[in-house]
Structure formats: structure tokens, C-alpha cells
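Step 1: inspect the first sequence and its C-alpha cells.
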Amino acid sequence: MKNRIALLLAALWWGSLTTIGFLVVPMLFARLGNPAVAGNFAGQLFAAQTWVALGCGLVLLVHFRAQGGDRVEGPARTAIFLIITALLLALLQQYAVSPRILARENLRLWHSLGSAMYLGQWVCAGVLLWRMGRRQA
């Protein structure tokens, strides 16, 4: 049962990253017409996504740490690495990159870096989900 809940959390994390980053935000920019307004909404969605990542990631960390016992090895160790990497990317994007984008400070650089961090988080969450799904089968 615990493994299935963890799998659902990993799916929620990856699915929300996918939906917001690759569907909703591009639609905002395409439909709203005003990049400043779309950017403001996108920033709020990405902030909410960070909280989803933190919630899912922390519960998954507890799950894999509990599975590993005294010494975390093998698949649990890889999962913990992926989760921590994704969480660090989410936090850095939210608290280091996003304020610079909002301040319109060297926008091209910070937007590119933020996009790369989001993609990195998406890849980490996707690999985690893939590995967890493979174990469930």
C-alpha cells in the first residue's frame, strides 16, 4: 500500500510539472496576448508548483529512507538522489532565479537558466516515476 501511495505521489509530481510547464504556461502566453500578464500568471503557477514539488518530494524522501533502513543502498539510494536533485532545482528556481526574472534583470539569461532548471526537475521526477513504475510491475 505504501509503495502505491509513493507511486501516486511521484506521478502527481511529474504530471503537474508536465501540465504546467508544457501545456498551461505556453497556452497563457498564446492566449492572453500580453506577455507581462501571462508572465505574472506563469510565475504564480510555478510558485504553486514548487509547493507541490516540496510536498511530494519530502514524503517520497521519507518513504525511501524508511525502505533503506540503517543503510540506504541500491534503488532507494538512486531515488533519494533524484528527489534531492529535483528539490534543489525547484528551490533554486523559485528563490534564486524567479526573483531575477520578476525584476527583469538580464531576462534572457535568467529565463534560460530557470527553464533549464525546470527541465532538470522534470527529468529527475520522470526518471524517478519510471523506475518506481518498473518496480511495481
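Step 2: inspect the second sequence and its C-alpha cells, then contrast the two.
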Amino acid sequence: MVKFILPEEVLPLRSLVLRNGKPLTECEFEGDRNYDTFHLGYVENDKIRSIASLMRNDYFPEEGEGYQLRGMATHPDFGGRGYGAALINFAVEYLKEYQTDYLWCNARSSAATFYKKLGFINESPEFDIPGIGFHYEMRLKLK
């Protein structure tokens, strides 16, 4: 089940999956506690299995109002079960209700196919985020 969760609830999975076990304090993102940021978790048996953070960010200003998907991660023991897709689908429906024009992300190269299956299009050549890895800018139009 997809639920809204608190900013601190995303940190353990961010550390485990995205930041190679760094301390939780090093896994916080600027904007995590902004009033227009929200965090989602896929919860099963009272445990968070997958996470996503969504932050207001008009990265493509000519396209209108945008939100950035950040820090999406699924626990390695629970991958391939559709939890990540459920989070994105929930976020898309929620953002459409607020007339958001698009959702975008810096998608890890290894996850680009996942995002393409959900309708995202690639907006950049591959680029390296030092210490994190290779990514693509990807965008999903919501209107």
C-alpha cells in the first residue's frame, strides 16, 4: 500500500540503496522538509519497502510547473514486485490533481528502462554525478 511518510522515514532506504550505507545525516536532501515536498512509501506488513521523494522544481520552466522525483529506492530483497511503479503511479495521480505539468528525475542509467516503461522520455545524454554514478534527465508530461 502506498502511503505518505515523514522525511526521516526515507533515510534508512536512501542510505542502504542509494548512498552505500552512509550515516542517515548524510542522506538528507536539501528540500526534504519544504512545505511543498512530499514523501511516499510502499508499506507492506508495517515495513517500508520502497520510497520516493517529490519536490517542487521547475527544471523545464518553459513546460510549466514541475516536480522532481528524488531518492527513489526499493529494498534489495523486494525488487521487481511493482512497488516502485506503484509509488510513481500514485504520485502522478496526486500531482495531476494539483494541475502539475510534468514530473522529472535524474534517473540512474541502470533504471532508465524502468522509467521508460512508465512513460518517461529521455531529455539528456548520459552524465555522471560524482560519487553517485551515471544518470539521464527524464521527464513525464502530466497534461
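Step 3: confirm your contrast with the notes below.
The mean pLDDT is 96. Helices lie at 7-18, 83-97, 112-117.
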